[in-house]
Amino acid sequence: MSQEHTPVLLSGLAGAALSAGAVWIVSGSTLAAGLGAVAAAVGSVAAAAPLLRQRALALSRLADAVRDAASAPGDAQTIAVPEAPPALVAAANDLVEAMAAEIERARGTIRQLELRSKIAQTEIEAAEAVLNSIQDAILVTDSFNELKMANAPAAELMGFDRNDARARAVSDIVHDPKIRSMIVGALDNASPTHRRRVEHTVDDPEAGEPRHYDVTLACLPDAKAEGVGGVVTIIRDITREREISQMKSDFVSKASHELRTPLSSINAYLELLIDGEAADENSRQEFYAVIKSEADRLGRLIDNMLNISRIEAGIVRATPEEVDFVDVARSAVEIIQPQARLKDISVTLQHGPLACTAVADRDMVKQVYLNLLSNAVKYTPEGGRVTVSIENDDSTGSVLSTVADNGLGIPPDDLEKVFEKFYRIDNYKRVAKGTGLGLSLVKQIVETVHHGTVDVTSTLGLGSKFSFTIPYELEGA
Q: Which of 182, 189, 235, 266 has the fewest CB atoms within 10 Å distance of its CB?
């Protein structure tokens, strides 16, 4: 029984109460109104509960008789109704009990519907929370190509307000024509189990480079009928993955080239020795020296590649200790002096009276000094000078080291590239041999391991100055 019938029925029953074995002496108008309300309620109840129709029929007829008597001419203010038949009383009582049961069932149904509504709302909120926790952009559209749900990344990517976009057409909120056509096409041409995955490239005027997306479209089955009830669209930004993949390809290509060069030299001189081309001891010693030099170069190349890869992968961990940077730099200068003397290059160390110490990995710091000094000596002409300066930089809480030379300098277009793996300035390849990994390793040791900074300034033809800072305290030490 519907809830709207309840007050009408109870009001009618209150105005036309029946009791067995008694004569009703009531106001004609009151009784007529009460029984009239009962009659009206009975009509509604009969439609909702047909089984009550027979029991309520006698009560309805009684209401009609009383209504006729009340409208008859005369001054009587009351109407005497004969004793109600027991069958009618029983029918009325059964009707009241049935109505009470219907009312209780209706209330139970209402409570169940309210509970289901709350559960559904909770599930919707949980689904939205899950969607918002996903970094990929997600759109859910219905069978009319209208937006049902979207997470924050989708709103940011597509440039719409989620509160205003719900129930709006895809054509109004998705401005990318290809993505829009894919969503509409998935709904028009697919089955409920259809799933499609494509790559999509979008020009990004702000970044100046295209962005790459992996778009997955999955159709939702219609719960009420066979067919597609909507589409879930997942858009994942794979620009960084594409860049890393390209970097790996470039690394393998360049590494193969760099490895091939010393190996080719070693093989060539070994073949000369095997063929007996070295007729005397001096020639053999010369060949041995070349082979040893190329083998050492190959070993340094492999070591640098492994060190860089380990640092980038987070495998290498610093061994922190209190490091005296002046002492480490002095040790590196002593190692590089023989190479400098061959070109008559002076290498000097400058520092103040205060100790320059920081918590760092001593061996790694020494490797940084050696790589920078080696580069400075390689690209400085004979008779030049190289200066190592060390000081405390209290403003940044770090030790500042500088390796400066008056050598060839670096062209402005190459300044930002010198720290890239395998990068070498084309015009300088004939000046000195190298792998192009030394400065890349410097950057990894300083920035990735020690959380410091590396910088370079240079004037073409006048020299270069490489500076790096190491914080006084190593983070995580």
A: 189
